[in-house]
From TrEMBL:
<keyword id="KW-0472">Membrane</keyword>
<feature type="transmembrane region" description="Helical">
    <location>
        <begin position="523"/>
        <end position="542"/>
    </location>
</feature>
<keyword id="KW-1133">Transmembrane helix</keyword>
<keyword id="KW-0812">Transmembrane</keyword>
<protein>
    <submittedName>
        <fullName>Betaine/carnitine transporter, BCCT family</fullName>
    </submittedName>
</protein>
<feature type="transmembrane region" description="Helical">
    <location>
        <begin position="79"/>
        <end position="98"/>
    </location>
</feature>
<feature type="transmembrane region" description="Helical">
    <location>
        <begin position="476"/>
        <end position="496"/>
    </location>
</feature>
<dbReference type="GO" id="GO:0022857">
    <property type="term" value="F:transmembrane transporter activity"/>
</dbReference>
<feature type="transmembrane region" description="Helical">
    <location>
        <begin position="398"/>
        <end position="416"/>
    </location>
</feature>
<keyword id="KW-1003">Cell membrane</keyword>
<feature type="transmembrane region" description="Helical">
    <location>
        <begin position="227"/>
        <end position="245"/>
    </location>
</feature>
<comment type="similarity">
    <text>Belongs to the BCCT transporter (TC 2.A.15) family.</text>
</comment>
<feature type="transmembrane region" description="Helical">
    <location>
        <begin position="548"/>
        <end position="568"/>
    </location>
</feature>
<keyword id="KW-0813">Transport</keyword>
<dbReference type="Pfam" id="PF02028">
    <property type="entry name" value="BCCT"/>
</dbReference>
<feature type="compositionally biased region" description="Basic and acidic residues">
    <location>
        <begin position="17"/>
        <end position="27"/>
    </location>
</feature>
<dbReference type="InterPro" id="IPR000060">
    <property type="entry name" value="BCCT_transptr"/>
</dbReference>
Amino acid sequence: MTQTPPPGKPFRKDHKGRPGDPRHERNALTGQHAPETDADVEALPVPEGPTEIISTDYEIGQDNIEGRKLVAFDIHNPVFMFSAVTIVLFTAATLLFPTQLGPFFGSLRDIVTSRFDWFFIIAGNVFVLLSLGLILSPLGSIRLGGPQATPDFTLTGWFAMLFAAGMGIGLMFYGVSEPLGHFTASLGGPVVENGVRTDWAPLDGAVGDELAARRLAMAATIFHWGLHPWAIYAVVALALALFAYNKGLPLTLRSVFYPIFGERIWGWPGHVIDVMAVLATLFGLATSLGIGAEQATAGFGFLFGWTATDTSKTVLIILITAVATGSVVMGVEKGVKRLSEINMVMAIILLLFVILVGPTWQIITGFFGNLGAYATNILPLSNPFGRDDDNFRQGWTAFYWAWWISWSPFVGMFIARVSRGRTVRQFLIAVLIVPSLISVLWMTTFGGTAISLTLAGFSGVTDAALELQLFQMLSQLPLTAITSFVGIVLVIVFFVTSSDSGSLVIDTIAAGGKINAPVPQRIFWCSFEGLVAIALLLGGGLTALQAMAVSTGLPFTVVLLGACFAIVKGLMAERRELLMPGPGAGGRVSSS
């Protein structure tokens, strides 16, 4: 005859359970037997099949403060309060003292990227090597959610959400400007003044050689949009998915560090990690939203002659934040997923249009040639030492890595939420390889077309501001008004999908891991993303946006390196679990 513990009292942590033993049926979020459930909170699915569920006395939401009268809220006290107060104070200071803070943001960005460029580059290499190693290793066969778990979304819907959340606005903004900028700098070659290189060419450039400059420019661009950034996202997403869906811990960044800190993750070490995740996510999103506003207003000015002012950018951010708020209230399935699929279709249509009416053969052959150039140059571009291309390495690469890392809590958690049921190998191939190839095709199409136009004698793209270069390129193709309008809509919808999915993620972290907290909290975070973007635009423009992205990305890089260790340890435990005879669908309870 089996025995059950008193209600609410967990068995000791070293209890493993046996098939058919009711003591084995423990909750995947808390590790406790038969806990009471909150009808207002959507629970994470229980692992399906034998997994190493981590038994812990912590109960999700136990540190939360709840209110149900005037405004419903359910917040994790230390994380929400410290994050919200920090963001409110920062926003107020930036709006009150824009002229004083503008130069500060510029110097902050330069200090972080110049002094820590080596650290960002080394960390990026670690993330890529870990991801590729897991794809090739036996650990890649482990399924997120348990051996019997099935995917929650179709392959098409999954890919759409991965891509829209990951890089939408950035591809629209830099798809033309970055390849063209690298090409121009490479063609000019190194420029030395007073013994210091002042040019922006990658590596040693390709002075006077148009073909070599083109290949080097595309290799440098793909380096910034290929394996390295997607590996950053993959590390965070895999860590979150593993410890939530297989280990039974709350879906927050602190859970990833259970192998390192143990039960201490429920205290201040965990609070610090989650607060850093909230701040990195919000400032990373604000950077992208500000860039999107810059380009959208520039597009409206290009098409309709509207003047791009701080007021027009502010109004645009407010309007789009309102749309994003409506989407975030609807949730992942009804709001984010549908917008992502619409955006993917529009992006594919614009991409195919440029391929068909642009230099088609050059784009097709350039795709494979650019992949070859990327393979040839990836090692020297990944090398953090012994280089003299400081402007490129610090101003481009270090900034990008910090930006991707600041985005990684948001994108990683969002990817984790929609990736249950995939094996680690499927997950990493989808998150690492497929988006990288799409980015190569996008950059080859838009950047390659702009380079071809420039070589043909058209200087309009090169002479235009960064936010206008896409529209200048489209002006040399048929149906300019239509394609430019589609480009603006893409920027706006990417803006919305980033804002709404980011708000869902921040809300989950600030609610202590509850993935369906009250709607007013989602509205709060969505609104504050827009306010921070407005404050940064008014307090220093693009420089301020970039400064906050790199400054929050720096400390979070340390967090991600710790997550790499936790991933390997967690997957090895899952591998042992699969090889051991154990219980069935309920999973195996462990204390490690």
